[in-house]
Amino acid sequence: MTKKQLGIFLGVVAVLIAALIVGIVLTDGLYERDVNIQESMQDAVLHEGDKVWFFGLQVNPGLISAYLVTAVILIFAAIVRIFVIPRFKLVPGRFQIVLEEAVGMFTGMAEKNSPHRNKFLGAYIFAAAAYIFVGTLFELVGFPWQSAAGESVTLPAPLSDINGAIALGCLSYLVILAGGIAANRARGLGRTLKEFSLPISMSFRLFGALLSGLLVSELVYSYLTLSFVLPVLVGVLFTVMHALVQAYVLATLTALIYGEVTEPYVKKTRAHSKEKHHQIKPEVNV
Q1: In whole numbers, what is the pLDDT of the chain averaged over residues?
Q2: Would you list the DSSP string of the chain?
Q3: Confidence check: pLDDT of 123 > 90
Q4: Cβ-based neighbour number of residue 202 at 10 Å
Q5: What are the C-alpha distances in Å from 202 to residues 117, 142, 165, 187?
Q6: Domains of the chain, residue spans
Q7: Phi and psi torsions of 146, nearest 5°
Q8: Mind giving me the DSSP string for 32-55?
């Protein structure tokens, strides 16, 4: 970058900062807070004031988000399977490279952590990671919905609702449990039941991580001096970071525990122990 280009860049930044300061000063008298920050953060967690109607029932808006995200993923997967995959070439294009790399990454993760049973595991962790990633980015769309009180609300990320996080955590635990039973019967069941805290830790890890970004954005936006441009940057950064990190963490954790409970049990017999003892016994010449 030349000195002239650097001077232009710094001038643009200075103009933007000055414009933000002027906007804050001019709108100071126009700003009225209809609810305090405590109520905003409480509604973001409990959704008591923004419930929506769904077939005659009042539900959390996260449920509508979950259905919309699921529909988007299924429709996209069907389009790719029907129209894109049959046209794959030996010399891949950009989309084919991205898709193959994503599938290969989760397949490799499954094979590495569970070498004995990994076909279903690879498909599950790929689907779970895709749901977490797309569902977390969904809140950036700002999809509007009408609440039961007649007000307009923005649909949140599905996993920012504690019920959605618990559902995904329990589903991952059931997949691990089914794999353990299929591989080792009662021993696999016992190995899985020893990890009784796993669904709780998975659920609250997802819920806490995704909710923290929402609460930070609410906190930043609630103050006038911080409510220009900064909430957009903070919201996007937190959302993208949580989408990537939480998708990877849940996929890795599920693959690790699944590999442990599906590892074949090798029974040590007395004959096997004697044979091993004779093999390692040194020869003594008399």
Answers
A1: 78
A2: --HHHHHHHHHHHHHHHHHHHHHHHHTTTT---SS-HHHHHHHHHH-SS--EEETTEEE-HHHHHHHHHHHHHHHHHHHIIIIIGGG--SS--HHHHHHHHHHHHHHHHHHHH-SSS-HHHHHHHHHHHHHHHHHHHGGGT--EEE-TTS-EEE---GGGSHHHHHHHHHHHHHHHHHHHHHHHHHHHHHHHHTTTTHHHHHHHHHHHHHHHHHHHHHHHHTSGGG-SSHHHHHHHHHHHHHHHHHHHHHHHHHHHHHHHHTSPP----HHHHHHHHHHHSPP---
A3: yes
A4: 23
A5: 22, 26, 8, 23
A6: 22-264
A7: -95, 130
A8: --SS-HHHHHHHHHH-SS--EEET
Q: Within 10 Å of residue 156's Cβ, how many Cβ atoms? A: 24
pLDDT in tens, 180-228: 898 888 888 888 888 778 888 888 887 777 667 666 666 666 655 555 5
- Please enumerate in sequence order all residues whose Cβ is within 8 A of that of 62, keeping only pairs 6 or more positions apart, or say none: 47, 155, 156, 157, 158, 159, 160, 161, 163, 164
For residues 109 and 106, what is the distance between their CA atoms, to the nearest angstrom?
Answer: 5
Rg (CA), the chain: 26
pLDDT in tens, 46-98: 666 678 888 888 888 888 999 999 999 999 999 999 999 999 888 888 999 99
Question: Can you read off the two tokens belonging to residue 254?
Answer: 């599920």
- For residue 145, pLDDT over 80 is answered with yes
Query: Do residues 203 and 169 make contact, with C-beta atoms less than 8 angstroms apart?
Result: yes
Mean pLDDT value across residues 101-124: 91
Q: Which residues contact 146 (CB under 8 A, 6 or more apart)?
A: 52, 152, 153
238 CB-near residues (< 8 Å, 6+ apart): 212, 213, 216, 217
Q: With CA atoms as reference, report the closest residue to 192 among 124, 135, 260.
A: 260
